[in-house]
Amino acid sequence: MTNQLFTLIIFYVLAAIAVMGGVTVILSRRPMRCAVGLLATLLSLAGVYVLMHAHLVAILQILVYAGGITVLFGFAIMFLRQGGPQRYRGPFMPVWVISLFTAGYLVYLVLPVIRAAEAVKETVPPDYGTIQLMGKVLLSAQLVPFEAVAILLLMTMVGVIALARRPRKEAAS
Amino acid sequence: MTLTTFIALSPILIIAAGAVAMIFVDALLQKSGKTAGSLFRSIHTKGEPPVDEISYASSIDRALVSATILGAAAIVSAVLWFGGQLGGVIEIGGALQVDKLALFGFMLCALGGSLASLMSSHHLYEIKADEGQFHPVLMLATCGAMLLCASSSFIMFFLALETMSLGAYILTGMRRASPRSTEGAMKYFLMGAFASAILLYGLALLYGETGVSSFEAMGKGLAGAGAKPLVMLGGVLVLVGLAFKVSAVPFHMWTPDAYQGAPTPATSFMAAVVKTAAFVVMLRFLSVVLTGGILAGPPFGWASVLAVLAVLTMFWGNMAALKQKNIKRMLAFSSIAHAGYILIGVVTMHKAGEAAMAGVLYYLFAYLAANAGAFAIVCSAVKGGSEATDIDDYRGFGRRHPLLGAAMGIFLLSMLGMPPLAGFFGKLYIFASAVEHGLWLLAVLGMIASVVSAYYYIGVIVVMFMRESEEGKPVAVPVRSGQIIAAILVALILVLQLGLYPTPWLR
Predict the structure, then answer these.
(1) Cα–Cα dist A58/A50, whole Å
(2) Given A116, B6, B69, B463, which residue has the most CB atoms within 10 angstroms?
(3) Among residues 308-347 of chain B, which lie with CB inside 8 Å of chain A?
């Protein structure tokens, strides 16, 4: 019982951090703060994954998102930044209206789903979400997709080389 | 891996192995400064800045090699499809399912890729977009499209979709010197990433309801579940993702910019291969997973959703195409409109089943041939060293080059749906099947939309044959390239053959 209570407390702490990070990303007008807010969200989500026995996903989350992507964001922001923070100048009002409408509609759609959700009754097997189990599944049940990832990776590598090279002037334009 | 599995997957394997081999051989050849086939270097270009012989020749060779590999895969798939040697359905690792539908998709995708490669020969050199990366990416993206046609589990579905889409984003941005290309690629990539995320969310919800990832098992699970909010939401989100890929209104915003900015062969690839594969997987998903009566039929099933999308797409696409001055942009809107007609066929499927599916596939084939042909001609036409994309550049094009003009006319009339060309029968099957199953309103709206489209298709023909070019303005001149001619010929033969003698394909 205390164990469960403890888990619950940790979950709420992590969830609060995640939400605060998300709000920072949306509301802050300084790109660097947005990036840090994103980092906070991603790290606390990794914590939630651990609570849900998904260790591999948690590690991947930290390595790929928190480690790789946020650093990339940081670099991009620092390279691109010229002068102070810039305000978004655009058709602000209509965007707000449309966003609110869409968000409201989504809530309208999602609410019944949440209401109808039942408490999870099944317990997961002890090795659920571990790296060993993931490895076994990848090389047995999901072998074909696992192999097919090779195509995706090779294509992306070639494509990145093509897109990152210095552009040559076109003949006549 | 048994022999049957191997044979069933052979089209994909041919292309994947070919792409890998091309990457390696090309790297070695570039290092030693040679080109693959000096045999094929008879192509002649006029009035250009000094030609960098080696890079030009290797550009041509690459196009030919990749077109040959893709064409071989198309032929193998066609043989498998016609012959039926595989004997029904082949399951591969619970992730792929090679059946008639998949084999037909293989054939269309490989054919579309092959035509795009053929027409790329001169064009890529001209826009300086070819340093040996274009064709491998094109081939691997085609592999992704083919895997998508055969995918029968959610994981494979998403993976193949991403392979295909990432390839399309990369190809769109390959024209590095043109800001338009970068803009198109950026828009396509950002919106595509959102669409993929939305689709994945939908898949996750459906997985949450049933707890299985294979299409079959999920279909059974959902049939028992009925119209739960969770299932409805998941289904809608997946439909949104797929509607984005086929560029149905209102998920079409990326299409004109991406089509216009991309190198023309890549545009042809997007219009033909990406759309075909997305429609094939849509057919499979709707017919296997969301089969339950409540999930499919009116008032809340996918049929109603797609019917609304179909009407919006047809009219919006055709109306917007009327105003276009750029031929690639016009063809982009026309491809949106075609997605609308095809969606009518998909909607009919909830009543007609297999029969409607055949109509959709036939339409896709006809659309692919006519579209690839039209893009090949756009590819071939240059104006003072750069590509001719304004419709006004084509003033008098048909008089100066009657054969090419006539071919373009045939492609456009086929897209319009003029008998006895391929497009006519495509529309006939789709509309007739809709009427037969009581969806006459959709069919009538489709016909009205087709009449609207006559204005801009015939407008181009009028410009080509009846307008004189203005004095002193550079006019569009076709490049003398055997490969582009070959692409045009293949497309022409298909358009005529599908129209005049469609029987072998109607099974």
Answers:
(1) 6
(2) B69
(3) none
Closest Cα to residue B142, out of B25, B260, B19, B258?
Answer: B19
Q: What is the ipTM of this complex?
A: 0.88
Question: Pick from B83, B69, B90: which is nearest to B12 by CA?
Answer: B69
Burial of B345 (0-12, 13-18, 19+ CB in 10 A): buried
B275-284: pLDDT as tens digits: 999 999 999 9
Residue A56 to residue A65: CA distance in whole angstroms:
13
Give the pairing type, strands B381-383 and B386-387: antiparallel
β-bridge pairing B381-383 and B477-478: antiparallel
- pLDDT tens readout for residues A75-104: 888 887 665 555 656 555 677 788 888 888
**If you write DSSP's letter for every residue of B118-160 in order, what string do you get?**
HHHHHHHHHTT--SS-HHHHHHHHHHHHHHHHHB-BHHHHHHH
Encode burial over B204-230: b for 16+ CB neighbours within 10 A, e otherwise: ebbbebbebbbbebbbbbbeebeebbb
**Residue at token pair 């997985």:** B207
Buried b (16+ CB within 10 A) or exposed e, B309-326: bbbbbbbbbbebbeebeb
Tell me which residue of B7, B12, B5 sits closest to B90, measured CA to CA: B5
pLDDT at A165 over 60: yes
CA distance B417 to B414: 5
B423 neighbors B431 (Cβ within 8 angstroms) = no
> How much is the pTM?
0.89
- Flag if B49 and A151 touch (Cβ within 8 Å): no
How far, CA to CA in Å, does B426 sit from each of B69, B197, B208, B371, B489? 28, 33, 39, 14, 20
Q: Measured on CA atoms in the order B304, B333, B370, B133, is the torsion positive or negative? A: negative
Query: For A116, how many CA atoms within 13 A lie in the half-sphere containing its CB?
Result: 13
Residues 183-222 of B with CB under 8 A from A: 205
Model pLDDT for residues A37-63, shown as the tens digit of each residue: 999 999 999 999 988 888 888 998 999
The confidence score (pLDDT) of residue B43 equals: 44
Residue A173's pLDDT is: 41
Residues A173, B162: C-beta atoms closer than 8 Å: no
Tokens of B273: 């291969």
- How many other CB atoms sit within 10 Å of the CB of residue B177? 15
Residue B234: HSE in the Cβ half-sphere, 13 Å Cα cutoff: 25
CB proximity under 8 Å: B 24-53 to A: 48-49
Cross-strand pairs, B92: B96
Residue B354: the pLDDT is 80
**To the nearest whole angstrom, how far is the Cα of B419 from the nearest Cα of chain A?**
40
Do the chains contact at A162 and B229, CB–CB below 8 Å?
A: no
Question: Are B384 and A172 an interchain contact pair (Cβ–Cβ within 8 Å)?
Answer: yes
Confidence band, pLDDT 50/70/90 cuts, at residue B49 = very low
At residue B162, φ and ψ (nearest 5 deg) are -70, -40
